[in-house]
Backbone:
């Protein structure tokens, strides 16, 4: 049902926010200029992109939102003297932006703009010469509306509390960068003003009837009096979607970094219609990844219920990559009305990941990702999902295998099984019985320490595991009935990785009964080291003695830190 006048769904600062529920409730699909052009866009490039999307079938496939990223606004540091809004760069866009918006709309697309809720937009030049919208949100919302925009991507890329004199801003401070180059620009620190600044922009967009807004804050936590809150929490009610991570870039490492950051967000249960976690633009079509890596990247983004924003030269895409991007089954999963992202079921470190997620009709989306980066047979045992049998559709080949309990095929390095399970028969019978052990009850060595942990079941956790002193904890006298088993870990890892390094995981070195060390990856669990626990993380370990007492010892890998641990559970 479409509201014809203001129907209050939320009050922010006394203003009625009417329109959010009218924006599409499933992830946005479209094209964004950034990964192809950076901030160097012009009329000819944008015209060609619009025409290519249309002629190659992308609009019909559902890629409707055409989004201009940075580069559209004037670099003269001035606002429009007539309207008070940001000025369009008339050197790059001599006819303004309305003819381009009209062209896109004539092809069945929806227009989308980018701005910044801070003083400056990000820009490759440091300090940035391009103004942002702070203090001028109303005029800029009017400008976006005059271009018939329906969706706005919004960052906060300038940290100063008062408008700085660009001449006095150090290069490193541009866009809150902490690197030596502007291309590394992204805030890496939590801030207290995210909510107020984005709320102002959101309200002005709602006022003019622009109903969709992406908060593009790179997965940075908000600093509250109760500690840090992740964007899945702080963006609620002031946007239709939020970026869950720092920017994507070329290469598989970036896909792995971002999807590790998605793990805790998918588990939070807070993603759904109207509150969508955006894993950033697609790199499909760009250099840096093999075909199989690009296909896995696309399947992961589709199943995580991320926005699907193509960001490449569409005219130059191979037919094979067009087929990946226009895969109807994966698009159907992405656009599923339940908007439930796949969750990481189990990671076999350096071997494979198993993800699964519920769909509105009771089917299940499954993604198995090769982590060995070698050609191999990749297998799914449905019992790992608590399923006895199902019909399995391979979404890359469209083949359906009826009433099966497993599925295997050959894949190349970082390839994947992208599957849809239907006609599902769940396994019955008693589940595995687990016994919990507080890690704080273990023997600590070499600097490992117990620390207060408000959210821990044990009320304390063990930290400082690993590092250069190689802190460790050993749990002894463990009795268990299985030699090889899935051990469960309740852990905390809040070390966020940004562009330029890191994978959003901490590695632990784990030994059972003093045997061979196994390296285990623990993805980011949140932002708050006292509360953001990943409970029940499944790790396959072997070497247990079913006849007598066992020990488990945990340390770091190299000089790196392991996560902090609350409890572990072994099979009773
Ligand atoms: C300035 O605003 C006026 C009035 O809205 C508009 O016609 C003009 O195109 C704008 N100029 C630029 C450079 O954005």
Residues:
């Amino acid at each position: 049902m479409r509201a014809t006048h203001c129907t209050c769904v939320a009050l922010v600062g006394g203003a009625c926010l009417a329109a959010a529920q009218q924006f599409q409730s499933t992830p946005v699909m479209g094209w964004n200029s950034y990964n192809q052009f950076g901030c160097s866009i012009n009329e000819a490039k944008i015209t060609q992109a619009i025409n290519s999307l249309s002629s190659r079938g992308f609009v019909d496939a559902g890629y409707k939102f055409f989004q201009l990223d940075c580069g559209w606004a004037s670099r003269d540091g001035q606002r429009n003297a007539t309207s008070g809004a940001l000025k369009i760069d008339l050197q790059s866009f001599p006819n303004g932006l309305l003819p381009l918006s009209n062209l896109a709309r004539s092809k069945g697309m929806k227009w989308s703009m980018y701005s910044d809720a801070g003083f400056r937009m990000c820009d490759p030049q440091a300090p940035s010469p391009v103004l942002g919208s702070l203090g001028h949100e109303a005029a800029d919302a009017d400008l976006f509306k005059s271009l018939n925009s329906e969706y706005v991507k919004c960052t906060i890329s300038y940290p100063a509390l008062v408008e700085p004199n660009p001449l006095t801003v150090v290069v490193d401070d541009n866009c809150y960068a902490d690197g030596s180059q502007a291309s590394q620009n992204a805030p890496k620190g939590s801030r207290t003003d995210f909510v107020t600044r984005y709320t102002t922009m959101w309200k002005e967009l709602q006022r003019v009837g622009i109903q969709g807004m992406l908060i593009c804050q790179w997965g940075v936590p908000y600093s509250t009096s109760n500690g840090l809150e992740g964007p899945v929490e702080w963006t609620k009610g002031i946007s239709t979607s939020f970026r869950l991570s720092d920017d994507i870039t070329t290469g598989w490492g970036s896909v792995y970094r971002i999807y590790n950051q998605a793990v805790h967000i998918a588990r939070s249960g807070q993603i759904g219609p109207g509150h969508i976690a955006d894993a950033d633009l697609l790199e499909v079509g760009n250099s840096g990844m093999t075909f199989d890596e690009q296909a896995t990247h696309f399947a992961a983004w589709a199943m995580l219920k991320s926005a699907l924003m193509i960001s490449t030269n569409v005219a130059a895409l191979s037919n094979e990559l067009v087929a990946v991007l226009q895969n109807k089954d994966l698009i159907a999963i992405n656009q599923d009305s339940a908007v439930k992202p796949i969750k990481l079921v189990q990671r076999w470190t350096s071997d494979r990941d198993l993800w699964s997620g519920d769909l509105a009709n009771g089917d299940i989306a499954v993604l198995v990702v090769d982590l060995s980066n070698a050609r191999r047979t990749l297998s799914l045992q449905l019992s790992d999902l608590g399923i006895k049998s199902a019909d399995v559709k391979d979404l890359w080949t469209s083949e359906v295998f009826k009433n099966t309990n497993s599925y295997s095929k050959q894949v190349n390095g970082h390839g994947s099984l992208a599957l849809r399970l239907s006609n599902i028969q769940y396994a019955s019978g008693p589940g595995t019985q687990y016994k919990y052990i507080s890690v704080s009850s273990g023997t600590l060595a070499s600097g490992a320490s117990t620390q207060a942990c408000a959210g821990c079941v044990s009320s304390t956790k063990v930290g400082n595991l690993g590092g250069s002193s190689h802190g460790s904890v050993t749990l002894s006298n463990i009795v268990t009935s299985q030699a090889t088993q899935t051990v469960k870990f309740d852990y905390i890892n809040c070390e966020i990785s940004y562009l330029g390094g890191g994978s959003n995981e901490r590695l632990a070195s784990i030994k059972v009964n003093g045997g061979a060390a196994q390296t285990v990856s623990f993805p980011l669990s949140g932002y708050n080291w006292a509360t953001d626990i990943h409970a029940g993380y499944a790790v396959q370990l072997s070497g247990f003695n079913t006849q007598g007492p066992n020990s488990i010892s945990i340390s770091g890998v190299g000089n790196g830190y392991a996560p902090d641990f609350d409890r572990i559970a072994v099979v009773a």
